[in-house]
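Q: Hi! New to this. If I give you a protein sequence and the SMILES for flavin mononucleotide, can you show me the bound structure?
A: Yes, paste them in.
Q: Okay, here:
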Amino acid sequence: MTNDFEEVRILDNFYQTSSFYPMPVVLITTISETGVTNIGPYSLVFPFGIADQHAMMLISRNTSNTAQNVLRTRKATLNFIPYDKKILKNTVKLGFPGQTSEEKLNDSIFTLQPSNGKMTNGKIPKYVQESVQIFECTWDDGESFHYNGTKDESHFLLRIDRILMKKKWHNALVEGNGKFPSLPIDYGYRDNKHFWFSEPRTPYSEALPKGKGVDLGTVRYQADRLDSDVHWTDEACAKIVAIPRVFLKKAMTQIVKQAEEMGVTTLTPEIMDEIRDKRNREKRMK
Ligand SMILES: Cc1cc2nc3c(=O)[nH]c(=O)nc-3n(C[C@H](O)[C@H](O)[C@H](O)COP(=O)(O)O)c2cc1C
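A: Thanks. Here is the predicted structure of the protein with flavin mononucleotide bound:
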């Protein structure tokens, strides 16, 4: 161990004052008390429930328009804006505390559009047309999730009702064609004067480690223990040996469920391909 590292004092807002922490940039639209759309920039929004529940965690100061609107209406739409200096300049402008929703709308360069989502438990906020993707969310105020740890900060578990994406990026997602939208990275408010953003680079791919998946025997062992009459051929088992062990059971359960829906009793590599294609088609149709 060398002495390459210096200990950093941990201050309030440590993610931007005491560290370098890359974050997303999201414009959150909510509905104000007067019925207009409020636009607030946020970076502390992260996936929180990923498997059984699909949810994001938002951390906001208590007194923000966004927090107050979520508490009252339960609805928030997360608009992922693209990297564009003009857009980010306006984003920072909309992040200055103390302005009313109306004042912010006057300053905003963004185009707001009404949602065509089905209304459940209240009106869905308008979305930002310039976005790459949009998460329409409903606040889950279940006891275990509503943390109000300090008088200044609120934590909201936002369940994702719908994810909407511009056609081009929807195609990229479904086809896995290696194209990615250009999304900004926020390094926060670092020096009392500026917000710092970074220009994204085109992502590159790194091959998964070889031999770290499971072996055929492990897949067979799992296949024989799934609660289903669907039979797995060895060739079908061989097709999924690259799946990490921790995800294997869930992946196999999903495949079996789809086989059952298709009326299939024996899984072959061809059927596995069909299931994969069907899944891709379904994703495309959503
Ligand atoms: C890029 C960016 C990211 C921000 N992220 C957060 C955040 O995650 N949480 C927070 O409380 N404030 C954050 N702020 C500050 C809020 O935007 C600011 O409090 C603003 O007044 C909120 O708007 P609202 O009152 O309309 O909700 C951020 C500001 C900017 C410019």
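A: Residues 75 and 138 are 5 Å apart (CA to CA). Let me know if you'd like me to explain how to read the tokens.
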